Amino acid sequence: MNAGIGAAGPPLLARLSFRIESLGVLLLLSAAMAWMSPYFLSVSNILNILLATATIGVLAIGATYVISAAGLDLSLGSVLGVSAVVGAWLIDRAELPWIFGIIGCLGAGALAGFINGLLITRGRIPAFIVTLGMLGIARGVALVIANGQTIYGLAPEIVFLGQGRPWGVPMPVFIFIGVALVMHYILAYTRFGRYTLVIGDNEMAARAMGVQVETHKLKLYTVSGLMAGVGGLLFMSRVNAGDPTAGVGYELTAITAAIIGGTNLFGGRGSILGTFIGALIMGVLQNGLNLLAVQSYYQQISIGAVLIFAVWLDQTGRRRRDA
Questions:
Q1: What is the pLDDT of residues 146-160, one digit of tens each?
Q2: For 211-215, which contacts have Cβ atoms below 8 Å and span 24 or more sequence positions?
Q3: 232 near 105, Cβ under 8 Å?
Q4: Are 41 and 160 in contact (CB under 8 A)?
Q5: pLDDT tens column, 242-255
Q6: Is the torsion defined by CA of 304, 81, 241, 243 positive or negative?
């Protein structure tokens, strides 16, 4: 079952749409991990899963917006890294108040996304090439700013965002849920969200409707960069440092989470609730593999295999619906 945009049914349910297969995968995976490890269902481990999911989750939300409009952003992990370094540099090296660390993270991420969008829409360069180039540029800029070293020593207010535990729940979990709710509302209930899905479904039709496609895509890549900036803030505050190597390979996990949550790789369909579930699937998978002491390079193989499986599942379902 796939209750996508425009599906029949009550409007609220349609707007909360997600791929039911994703929820099934999450439940089956959780059951399998609980069977293999007695520690999996402990409260502390569940909180660890949510904490680990938070950073990937906000990246996946950015990926969902771009992919829903038939775009692609391969620079998410590197933009996360440079955002974290910029935020830490402003606090530790420039000795500015802690609030500038937050502004620096978000601003650096949004700026990188804006540059991506500008090159794609005005320069007519394929998104794959632009964001692949930004992947290298952002990583290099992060290393230059940090002089190749990790920047330590952040303000307590910043550290609280990553290590605080109101009511025993990690603060990044609250931030992730808050961001997901806002971005869900925008995608499901606003004109901006509708234009995003229409562009992904049929760009020519969107132009005929009067949608400023290039301008909208520019905004989408800026949003994606902003989400990477939020991810950088969460990562920086969690480890109390600006690490120029942070986020390596995160783009693969984030894109996988978005697709396995039901976002169509070729545009026209996307759901933040589905992406939330997809991020949880990736979090459960990585946590379970850690509990089972599976080595990290085997975990990379697993994530790649899950990405291929998710795309295959999406395409199989699409062919069945079209038959």
A1: 988 899 888 899 999
A2: 214/121, 214/122, 215/121
A3: yes
A4: no
A5: 999 998 889 988 99
A6: positive
